[in-house]
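The pair is set out directly below:
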Amino acid sequence: MVDDGFVNASSNCNGNQESPRKTKDINKKKKKKKRGGSKKKMTVEQTLASKSVSEWVYLDRKLVADDFDFGVHKTVMMRREDKVVFELHTHSKFSDGFLSPSKLVERAHGNGVKVLALTDHDTMSGIPEATEAARRFGIKIIPGVEISTMFSPRNPEAEEPVHILAYYSSGGPTRSDELEKFLANIRDGRYLRAKDMVLKLNKLKLPLKWEHVTRITGKGVAPGRLHVARAMVEAGYVENLKQAFARYLYDGGPAYSTGNEPLVEEAVQLICETGGVAVLAHPWALKNPVAIIQRLKDAGLHGMEVYRSDGKLAVYSDLADAYGLLKLGGSDYHGRGGNSESELGSVNLPAIALHDFLKVARPIWYHAIKDIFERYAEEPSDLNLARITKFGGTKILKGNSPMSCGKDLIDRCLSLWLTTEERQTAEFEAIKIKLSCVTINQGVGLAFL
């Protein structure tokens, strides 16, 4: 961009000014610079929100005082990174994504993502791998899951599938066994559902093989529509994934099938009971979003997706406001490539939206973490120890014991998971006293990734 000094010095040697055409072009550039060239200054509310979000994201890193904005003491990273990118909707090979959790994290890092929620369909099995990779790249993981459910109103014709996103603390869900049983039942239904889809395709004279689908799905992964669609593309029955869905696999399509999806209210209630934040996924895909949101708000729904890579959808933003719901969003990234998919980190979530999310989530996560440690303090078994370490970036090691007691464990975990204010409560002090008498089994050690 040419500055004013250069413009003033650009008169010709006779002292005459630039031609009217050149002057007009320069004025256009000036106007363009004034309209969009300079960064818009944040309001006090936005500054406070950004500061609060950054402090939570960088709990385990040193923050330094930078300068003062609007009388607010601004805290920034040592590297002076201005923007904290949250990616709250992603999938890996543990459901219907194309990338492993570690590759997903690596790609997110390349795209500048600082907080990543892995939300595979009906499973949290990829979280430990994602957390381990995230430590290497300096990314914070929010353990998540996208739960397949069914909305069943009185009119059977209005029944439709609904997906609910659950976001948990770094310690994972409380009552994790109950949640896992719930998810396992849905996954079992996914096998039956995919087999039925293959059967329907065969009846439509598309002789797709079940073995082809399972080969694409991978060992131990519950198949979904995307796996069936990929098999159809490979077999040459359709040209691409979009065509597979548009012709055969769309909701209510000729090869569509349902599985063991629970009622959507049950899923929302269980998320709330296990220390999670429940968010309605892609409401724009629903036939009757208002009726669904009304029912789910009563069940405990915390938020809904409103933001996409192409911006905020005003109608859903208004719905969220009407029902007092958080406004969130994510790319729904699967890693299939091409222009039809939003890239990781492409959804621009405002600092105020993130601050509102954390303002709701952090008290929920605080109580979940407290419950997990209380359970271990009351029954310091290897099983309860494993529940603590499963999602939180720790590994149980054999033959090495860098920590002598449960208090060491809680001190280290809480320094990574909670703020100083959150962890220095009477509740956690009481738990620490109990755990100071608990010795971690000989031959078992903990390593923090």
Notes: The chain has four domains: 4-37, 44-77, 85-349, 363-448. The chain is about 45% helix and 15% strand. Residues 4-37 form one domain.
